[in-house]
Amino acid sequence: MRTFAGDIRLLELQDQRIMPWKNGGGITRELAVYPDTSTLDGEPFLWRISIADVATDGPFSAFPGYDRSIMLIAGHGMELAMQEATPIRADKFYQPLRFSGDTATHCRLLDGPVRDFNVMSARGHIEHHCDVISGGASEARWAQSTEALFCHCLHGNLIVKLRDMAEWNLSVGQSLWLPMQPGSKTIPVLLAPNSPQTAAILVSLRNV
Hints:
mainly beta
């Protein structure tokens, strides 16, 4: 991990924490968690971003009080059964599926193991949103005092540029974390895929 002015962090593959799911049913790579001292069985987190490997059918871990988003990033997909609701298929890449961590959720794999990108945020405290970055360049806005931004590169290379401030070139597995911090600035953030194969995810995490 490299830290820049304003506690901006560039995270590498080796910074990811590999750990079992909360219910022990699979393996996850924790990309980032806030506060840093949070654990799954101790101090609660306000938000958490991870990549999970799902190798078998079975229940998802329960996270009461949290809102969740997952999106398929590898494999042929899965079907999620949530109590009495009609099962939902997650079988298209990079399409976020949002649901409550309070809801008992059972996963059925459609055709072999999958990998998914996960975001969880504490309901009533943090609101999260996921955008997929691919194709042409786009621009986000970072409201420093009320919002954190987290960008993770899945494929190719992505240029992330803070206007008149700094620039990073993210490669596969790298993440850039722009934290909430005191101040009233809203800073434009340019996100420019550097190849046709580039795919990245931008997560915004806003105070409620």
